[in-house]
TrEMBL record, chains A, B:
<feature type="domain" description="D-glutamate N-acetyltransferase-like N-terminal">
    <location>
        <begin position="54"/>
        <end position="131"/>
    </location>
</feature>
<dbReference type="Pfam" id="PF07755">
    <property type="entry name" value="DUF1611"/>
</dbReference>
<dbReference type="Pfam" id="PF17396">
    <property type="entry name" value="DUF1611_N"/>
</dbReference>
<dbReference type="InterPro" id="IPR011669">
    <property type="entry name" value="DgcN-like"/>
</dbReference>
<feature type="domain" description="D-glutamate N-acetyltransferase-like C-terminal">
    <location>
        <begin position="140"/>
        <end position="336"/>
    </location>
</feature>
<dbReference type="InterPro" id="IPR027417">
    <property type="entry name" value="P-loop_NTPase"/>
</dbReference>
<protein>
    <submittedName>
        <fullName>Putative NAD-dependent epimerase/dehydratase family protein</fullName>
    </submittedName>
</protein>
<dbReference type="InterPro" id="IPR035402">
    <property type="entry name" value="DgcN-like_N"/>
</dbReference>
<dbReference type="InterPro" id="IPR035086">
    <property type="entry name" value="DgcN-like_C"/>
</dbReference>
Length: 349, 349
């Protein structure tokens, strides 16, 4: 009965991942996300030189990629602010000339670039802008409670596991026979799941309304697993996070954290809040649209810690919070799912 | 030294206010705001019939208005969601045919309407879209502390006096010789002051960045008086309010309330929070970008109460909060200004 009220994406595959001049893995979130969750869809990488980030895919030029049957060049990263650098535009123009499609999740829209539009028309290529409302007229949020259950991943910062945690939750819930759907709120999640709304790119008045659209009414035992965005504690993006929190009206939140992260990434003057404050402030604000909201656990990225310390870090976090704590990439999310199921009996269907 | 980094507006005057089929004063915020703060600019009203809201201005048709020297038809209200109804478009087309310009603060842009664009070109009229980024490339917020002082009006709901309070503060601060600038964050404030950014209409990732742009670095004794938007407690618009709060990094907030308002306007399932919770939650969230933020008082709309109860209502609110409480339309804002000046001595210049 899952109704999708927003347009699905249908981007021809396989993909070649456009790395361009990216060097840092943190700047290639979209490429790495696709490669992790949809490895079968990724057949090549396009880099400006061998000095740039290597995903371990074949390095092809655009002509060779087209000859090998690759259909779409997917921009694999997002420069700060979502801008499209001129040298990327020049390269994507070459991709279109080679007969490929181009997909991008940047704020700077491919469709707003005259050269790319012209080349796409001339060479029969398609341009896919993942961000934006994609032609949809977004509603003002109503605040009306919706049927079905919802869990939202939230975080003390950006790039801290919100998408990964939600995708793993969906995968493991479905494996256990639970009726669950991942709801993408960002460009990488949309590319991975083939649908969703990039909440950070809608007009500000419609953030919560877009979030309401993203997780529509459903059957009582269905779980929407909603990908979080930004952080309430981020000096640039907290508005996005709050609108998504309100519009999602989650029955449960999962707080994402990274064991070694001390301050907001790129903002050294903004130390991360402690985990208890993080939970309390999320719940306080979330109660506006769902007074029954609970925190169902912590998703803690351990990759920065020595392996020998992993179990102790998880146990310490469980002691501090009284909540299940997992690293989805290492332990999976079963303990979160157990908690969600045990805790949701009394909630509205 | 006030630097304006965003484009100023230069809309030909005088204005005719476009009321169309609006009946309720609450739906004509832009017209009423202009009439209140810039009466000299408003020379006519355009209504579909005499049954519709009467501002007390001459009722002219567009041809008579053009003959009388009126230059621009200003859309005086915003239908829910900021959409432009077809019958309004038809009327605005007639205005363009009569040789007038058209200005609108709706989310639906005049420039996106092919008919209006065509008629403007044919008849030499100009279209002004107040909302949107107006060609500006918005930055991601940095969180960097800026020089100069800032006061932001916030509210427990929309349409609760945030703009009025800020305009009165600016007027009365300037009258006292204080270096102060009103910073408009919404379409009506922009029309009144001739500049600003409609924060609710920017792409969500840039809310706080736009707010940073709106109140740039200034001399130490300068006050930006920033118009608030929405409410942290509004199920649709809280994201806008939080981004504006963070980007404004206010030294002081003024909390706006209406004595008789019991729930969020149009959302009967959302009772207003009590005033202490409202203050505390604003301050908690505002501390992210300005740890020294204070609440400098309450702006209480008394118009719904009998006149005999006004003084008692203000006194009761002062007792409850320990803060100065005014109705700017009745008492002025001097008590708020006194508090701001007394309280700001220790703050950074």
């Amino acid at each position: 009965m899952t109704q999708i009220h927003y347009p699905a994406l249908d981007i021809p595959r396989p993909y070649g991942l456009f790395i361009a001049d990216i060097r840092d893995r943190l700047d290639a979130k979209t490429a790495l996300g696709l490669l992790e969750w949809r490895p079968d869809w990724c057949a090549a990488q396009f880099r400006f030189s061998n000095d740039h980030l290597d995903l371990g895919l074949p390095d092809l030029d655009f002509a060779a990629a087209a000859a090998a049957g690759i259909k779409t060049v997917v921009v694999g990263g997002a420069p700060f602010g979502g801008r499209l650098p001129p040298e990327w535009i020049a390269a994507l123009a070459e991709a279109l000339r080679a007969g490929l499609n181009v997909a991008s999740g940047l704020h700077d829209r491919l469709h707003d670039n005259e050269l790319l539009r012209k080349l796409a028309a001339e060479h029969g290529g398609q341009l896919f802008d993942i961000r934006g409302s994609r032609g949809l007229t977004l509603p003002v949020a109503t605040g009306r409670r919706r049927r079905g259950k919802r869990v939202l991943t939230v975080g003390l910062d950006c790039a801290i596991g919100k998408k990964f945690t939600a995708l793993m939750l969906e995968r493991q819930m479905i494996a256990r026979g639970i009726n669950a759907t991942f709801r993408a709120s960002g460009q990488t999640g949309i590319l991975i799941s083939g649908g969703g709304i990039a909440i950070d790119s809608v007009v500000a008045d419609f953030i919560a309304g877009a979030a309401e659209l993203l997780s529509p009414d459903n059957v009582p035992d269905h779980w929407d697993v909603i990908e979080g965005q930004g952080s309430l504690f981020h000096p640039a993006y907290a508005g996005v996070s709050l609108g998504l929190l309100h519009g999602s009206q989650p029955d449960a939140i999962i707080l994402c954290h990274e064991a070694a992260r001390m301050h907001v990434d790129g903002y050294p003057d903004f130390p991360l809040v402690d985990i208890q404050t993080g939970i309390a402030q999320h719940l306080e604000l979330a109660r506006l649209t769902n007074p029954d909201v609970r925190c169902a656990g912590i998703s803690l990225q351990l990759s920065q810690l020595p392996k020998a310390d992993h179990a102790a870090a998880l146990a310490a976090m469980e002691d501090r919070t009284g909540l299940p704590c997992v690293d989805p990439a290492i332990t999976g999310t079963d303990r979160l799912i157990d908690f969600l199921l045990a805790d949701s009996g009394s909630q509205r269907g």
